[in-house]
């Protein structure tokens, strides 16, 4: 008879309560599957008196998560507080320093301090598991680290921020402008306290940096992620994309090029009939491509009590079973310091310009593109009533820097009536 | 420094060669990820002289797979021969009896003998891993057994025979009848030597029985799978389904009902805009629903050298890392003997009838349905030139046995000009 696995849970928000519920409700099932009893010993949250809809009376209460992490009667420290500095970081370090494994849903913490924490964990013979930090209930970390361990990964892509996908889907379905849908999402409580984390692509960028570390055996490099949010996407972009058979998604892409590791989180056009293009609302999707497996697509809820708690429980069950994969899939000391490469792998681009409606404007634009070596696949000037002409261009495959040079040159011609929008068309 | 993990590979067909290639090409990567060197010690196949496009000279050769399985210089027996009796079974048993873990792609073997083999493995302190047996490169066994271990699974569904999905997709896209596309698939080498394994749903049924064992903690019960093939699906069915917003898929569904475990592998209508409905060609898809995670959808190639070898390698890497999950996710002795329930959970049905074109025929059909308690949602008689009238009916939710009673009664009325087709409309 194995010893029970003893948990200390820090953070009793939605996810923490979800984990407590599963451990209580499914005790017999968890023991049958893992061969051990999974028990909560102690919990920590700011307000002990709050009714969280689940019985917590049997557990020791710690006001200080660091004190919880250091308790000698727990085996696993479950960090569900969030935030990449302060209590979450201190408590995680304290847990590792005192010999606990750590299960966390904290993408920001690992995106900023993953390498140092992984090294600390390994020095202590412990692991950090973080399935819940990426793509909610989808077992994507496990698939990448274990199921696809025989693959040289060639590309990882994902729609990993449900709020952004909700906003973009809703703009299209309801024909509403960004600002209205943003406000709607805010009212519905879908946005982070700092909404830039969502719509600026930061939250999704954190997730991408974790996936690319595992995929390419690289040290986490969140600063190497080129971030671009969805704030400038207009209904016109969505409609124009749709008319050409595309959807606009806040898409993360990580791939190795000859010059280094490209990581970008930005609005992209993807084929409307691809799995990514068909994804609606708050659902997440991760696409993994490997030399042997070709392409795997994983889809599921990206947030919420049940799905996120499911991911946390998967990690806990692994630890109960004694499965300890290295934090980023291989020993931290073997992770490479791969240089961040700017997103220059060639792709077609969608470009929306607003031109002064006067003779020769279009010629100046076409010349700027040609001079930069960017060739045009399709171009259309859409109907307009005022003095400004919207122009949509789809380029042939080009490098982003050449396109940027062309856009820069256009600015100098005096025909531009507004800032251009340039979105990569990703092959999926 | 850990000891190398030593493999003996029986079967050097497409998948076996794929595994050899990965082990040779990715030696450094595999060692970085698992912390051990993964080495092939010995192989077995009928013809040692055949050129398989990969170097095999460094490995011991065994003509007899049982002799390979018994070698004391291997840790893992990799069974890639196929077949549920004979050499594959003998060799697997011999491997377990002599203390090896087993990795296999053999769905038939486990569908027929999974319980006995799992018990034998556990008695010997070994495990059988079979990621490659279900849905090719998709890490579905791992997701279900480990990633979703905190979930009470409520339903598992899947399109798990690429050949059937190819045939159905091709019929729709090219407007070709079943027989023509079947012949085409045959020419392309997509069909098993006994094509009934594919088009009769047997191969996919094997896979479903393995998934439902893990999902519901039940002993594998392939005999409990209600099997229905795609041989009777006509273009008209596909077109009628499409006109109502559905696609026809050979869909496996496993779920617990009050009366036991329902397992069915049969052609079903699914919404055209659902992930299952959008699946084309040889790609596989598995949908897993759990009480916490809600719904996860996994999609990927269901067959082929690379994808299947990827799945085998995932299992091998787990063993190299020392991860040994019980064969069906929990100890074999704890697996329940859940009674097979016939597929009576209520659902709407699509029914195509061919009636004698004479007055009162439709009334007799409607009466038979009404008498059996089956109510009609939609009904249409399609255009026809001859003496027989095709009628399409969509029922409200009904139990299959009530529908069958109605169809039985219709037969007695003398108005039926052919056998009816009745397909479940699955909510996805």
From TrEMBL, chains A, B:
Task: State if Oxidoreductase is listed as a keyword.
Answer: yes
Question: EC number(s) of the enzyme?
Answer: 1.1.1.3
State any single GO MF term. homoserine dehydrogenase activity
Q: Which UniProt keywords apply?
A: Amino-acid biosynthesis, Methionine biosynthesis, Oxidoreductase, Threonine biosynthesis
Q: Which residues form the ACT domain?
A: 350-428
Q: Under which pathway is this protein filed?
A: Amino-acid biosynthesis; L-methionine biosynthesis via de novo pathway; L-homoserine from L-aspartate: step 3/3; Amino-acid biosynthesis; L-threonine biosynthesis; L-threonine from L-aspartate: step 3/5
Gene3D superfamilies per UniProt: 3.30.70.260, Dihydrodipicolinate Reductase, domain 2, NAD(P)-binding Rossmann-like Domain
* Pfam families xrefs: ACT, Homoserine_dh, NAD_binding_3
InterPro entries annotated for this entry? ACT-like_dom_sf (IPR045865), ACT_dom (IPR002912), Asp/hSer_DH_NAD-bd (IPR005106), HDH (IPR016204), HDH_cat (IPR001342), NAD(P)-bd_dom_sf (IPR036291)
Which family does the UniProt entry place this protein in?
Answer: Belongs to the homoserine dehydrogenase family.
Name of this protein: Homoserine dehydrogenase
Q: Which organism is it from?
A: Aliisedimentitalea scapharcae
């Amino acid at each position: 008879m194995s010893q029970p696995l003893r948990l200390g849970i820090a953070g009793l928000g939605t996810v923490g309560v979800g984990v407590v519920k599963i451990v209580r409700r499914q005790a017999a099932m968890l023991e049958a599957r893992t061969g051990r009893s999974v028990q909560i010993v102690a919990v920590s949250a700011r307000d002990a008196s709050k009714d969280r809809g689940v019985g917590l009376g049997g557990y020791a209460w710690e006001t200080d998560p660091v004190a919880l992490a250091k308790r000698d009667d727990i085996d696993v420290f479950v960090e569900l507080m969030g935030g990449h500095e302060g209590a979450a970081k201190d408590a995680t370090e304290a847990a590792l320093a005192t010999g606990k494994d750590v299960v966390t849903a904290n993408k920001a913490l690992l995106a900023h301090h993953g390498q140092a924490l992984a090294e600390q964990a390994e020095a202590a013979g412990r692991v950090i598991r973080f399935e819940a930090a990426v793509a909610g209930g989808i077992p994507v970390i496990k698939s990448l680290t274990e199921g696809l361990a025989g693959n040289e990964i060639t590309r990882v892509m994902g729609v990993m921020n449900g709020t952004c996908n909700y906003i973009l889907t809703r703009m299209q379905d309801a024909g509403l402008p960004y600002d209205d849908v943003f406000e709607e999402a805010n009212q519905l409580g879908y946005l982070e306290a700092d909404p830039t984390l969502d719509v600026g692509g930061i939250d999704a960028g954190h997730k991408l940096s974790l996936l690319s570390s595992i995929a390419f055996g690289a040290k986490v490099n969140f600063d190497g992620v080129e971030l671009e949010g969805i704030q400038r996407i207009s209904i016109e972009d969505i409609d124009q994309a749709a008319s050409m058979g595309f959807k606009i998604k806040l898409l993360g892409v990580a791939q190795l090029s000859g010059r280094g590791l490209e990581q970008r989180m930005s609005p992209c056009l993807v084929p409307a009939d691809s799995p990514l293009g068909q994804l609606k609302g708050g659902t997440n999707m991760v696409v993994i491509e490997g030399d042997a497996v070709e392409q795997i697509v994983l889809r599921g809820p990206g947030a919420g009590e049940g799905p996120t708690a499911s991911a946390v429980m998967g990690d806990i069950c692994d630890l109960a079973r004694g499965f300890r994969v290295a934090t980023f899939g291989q020993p931290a000391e073997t992770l490479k310091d791969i240089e961040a490469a700017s997103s220059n792998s060639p792709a077609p681009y969608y470009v929306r310009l607003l031109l002064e409606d006067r003779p020769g404007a279009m010629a100046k634009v076409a010349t700027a593109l040609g001079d930069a070596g960017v060739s045009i696949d399709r171009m259309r000037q859409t109907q307009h009533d005022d003095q400004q002409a919207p122009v949509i261009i789809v380029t042939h495959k080009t490098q982003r820097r050449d396109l940027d040079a062309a856009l820069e040159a256009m600015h100098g011609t005096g025909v531009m009536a507004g800032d251009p929008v340039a979105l990569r068309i990703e092959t999926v």
